[in-house]
Amino acid sequence: MLPTPSTSHIAFDSIYEPAEDSYLLLDTLSSAAEILFLKDRFGLLKESAEGPFKPFNNQPSPLIAEIGTGSGVILAFLNANATAIFGRDDVLTLGTDVNSSACEATARTVRLAVGDASCKQRSLSIFSTGSVGACGVFSDALLADLSTPIRDGMIDVLVFNPPYVPTSHLPKLPQFEWASNTSADGGVIGSFEQESHLLSLSYAGGVDGMETTNRLLTQLPNVLHKYRGVAYLLLCAQNKPEDVKARVRGWGSGWAVETVSSSGKKGGWEKLQVIRIWRLGDETDGHS
Predict the structure, then answer these.
(1) Looking at residue 282, what is its pLDDT?
(2) What letter does residue 78 receive in the DSSP assignment?
(3) Radius of gyration of the chain (CA)
(4) Inter-axis angle of helices 73-80 and 100-117, to 10 degrees?
(5) Does residue 230 surpass a pLDDT of 60?
(6) Exposed, middle or buried: residue 11 (CB in 10 Å: 0-12, 13-18, 19+)?
(7) CB–CB of 207/164 below 8 Å?
C-alpha cells in the first residue's frame, strides 16, 4: 500500500480536509486495475520475452493536473508515487485552486511528501529505471478557476474532486476586494466570513451538485491531450452519474467512460463513485 501524505501542517479553517471522497480517489488511483491502465498508457517500460522490461514508449513527459487541490493530499500522493503509479519518474504535476490558502497548503504538502518518500534523483536517461522510490516533478499550485490557465491539449491526466453537494445556490468565486477586507457594497468582510465562504466553495455544488462539475466537463474536450488524455472525476449519487456518463458518450466515438470505483452500498445519497473519462486516440500518434 502506498503511503498517504500527511496534512497535519494545515489549518482547515478555509481548506477542505481530506475525507471519504479524498481517500476513495487515492484508493482508486493506486488500485491494481488503474495502475495497469496508467502504466500501459504512459509507462516507459514494459515486460517482454527477452527480459523483465524493455523500453517501449517515447512520448513526452506526462502532465498530471489536479483541479481544486484543497489540502494537496491527492496531488502530493501522485507526485510522490509517480513511478509506482505511472511507470515513469519524469511526470510533471500541477494544481489549481480558487483559494490562495489551498494553493500554499498544496505546495507544502507536496514538498513534505517528497521528503517523506526519500525520493531518488530522477534519472537523466531517456528511460526510467522503474524504481518505486522515484518521484515526479512538482511544477506549481496556481490560483485559478478550474483549468482556465492551462493551454488546450496539455493535460494528460486530470483529477477532480469537485464541490458535489447539492445546494440551493452556488457560492461566488473569491473577489480581489477581499485583500482589503471590503465587500462590493462597502461593508467589512471579517476573517471568519472569508474562511466560511472559501470552505463552502469546496463542497457546495449548486443544482444537483453539478454546477461546477458541468463547467469542468465543458472544458475537458479542449484541455485534455487529444490522444492520451484521461480524467478521473468523483461524483455522488445525486449528481446523476449515469447522466454524466451519457453526456460523455455523446461527445463521439473518440471517447470512453466507465465507473472504476465506488464507496459501497451504504451512505444514501452520499454514495460516491469515481468515473474515468479517456480518449480513444491512436497511441502511436500520441508520441509526437
Answers:
(1) 63
(2) H
(3) 19
(4) 30
(5) yes
(6) exposed
(7) no
